[in-house]
Amino acid sequence: MKGERTRVLLIEDEPDYARLVEGFLAGDEDGFAVETSGSLAAGLERLRGGGIHVALLDLGLPDSRGLKTLETVRSAHPDLPIIVISAVGDRTSVAEALERGAQDYFVKGHFVREMLARAVRHAIVRKRTEDDLNRSQLRYAQLCEGVPLCVFEADRSGRITFANPYAFRRFGFTPDDFAAGVNALDTVIEADRERAADNMRRVMGGEKLGFSDYTARRKDGGTFPVMIHSMPMRRDGRVVGLMGVIADVTEQRRAQTELAGALADLKQTLEGTVTALGATVELRDPYTAGHQRRVADMARAMSDGLGHTARDTEGVFVAALLHDLGKIAVPAEILTKPAPLTDTEYSLIKSHPSVGYDILAAVRFPWPVAAIVLQHHERMDGSGYPAGLCGDAIEPGARIIAVADTVEAMSSHRPYRAALGVDRALAHLREKRGALFDSPAVDVCLDLFAKGALKLGT
To answer: Does domain 287-458 have CATH number 1.20.1250.20?
Structure first.
């Protein structure tokens, strides 16, 4: 709908009231395009023609009355945002209408222009958010289908509730097997089950474990070596199960006869696993797609500008690409919430540096990537998180990413606010230079923007 006027269909049989509502919306700063239909039948006929973004629906029409009117429109157009405008305003009617799919409810004579216009705008934003989230979830499903890794989820009892097609093929199970109940412990050999059960209990207790090696067991009894990484799945602050990635390391073990060679290949496989997981963060959050890449490009330019070696600069770039990896453990509805977060939701968001650290600590990078990811929200005066580090106790790479992350985040749109712009972001850096942010990192960032070497959309 970008670039076109929002088209609103008002289904209302009282001409005078219809003209009042039309005036409310047509006179708004967004200049909504309003059409009116005087009956349910006429409204449905117009909706079949397409092009309507929001419907305003009176529940007392000549050819339909009450909640049946709402249900008829919802049934014919389930994806259309509907706002009810009714002469009836008791709590029961309002609650039932909202429960049956209305996005908002107004009582005739008890609202003003700004309230109605705001409700229409909110309906459009909510619809866009839902559409973006559905596309994001579809891309996530496609990623799970295409990646050559076994991805699975299990409930608190250990019963596998989801597995990608690669896992089905590699383990020889069918969807019917999982429907009948397959426990995650059944997928490793008996000698590994006690250790696997202990690790599962720890994950269910909220721990985030690194990669562990097991011998996997196929349905037909065949075995193969694997590395498994698992983490808690949380809902409403409670651990409801675990999710994991299984890397089949058969070829690595077969190809390498010496430990050093085997470890090198395994490292490459695990780095690929982390990269695949990191990509899911932006796939689940359409509002921050491209954020990690933009921060990484800024951080690399700043590291170069500070005179760091090519090797150190590459480490900063890699860490920046992964700095929000821990958001994989944050529910998608929190990442895309179009309103301020509650204290509980914000605490989940603040856990992402620690989650990212726990995932990356198992990977042997030639740079302190895990530590940089852990510290990228620390601040020079000790006011950051998760450890309240200050000054030189913070990794140099983390100080660079803190500046780049702040500029990009303030300059970009978020579901709960519009973009603040690059100028506001740079002014914030100047104000907090030396207090929140590393002075040399701020200076080189400001210099690069002044020279035009760094640019972001406003």
So the answer is: no
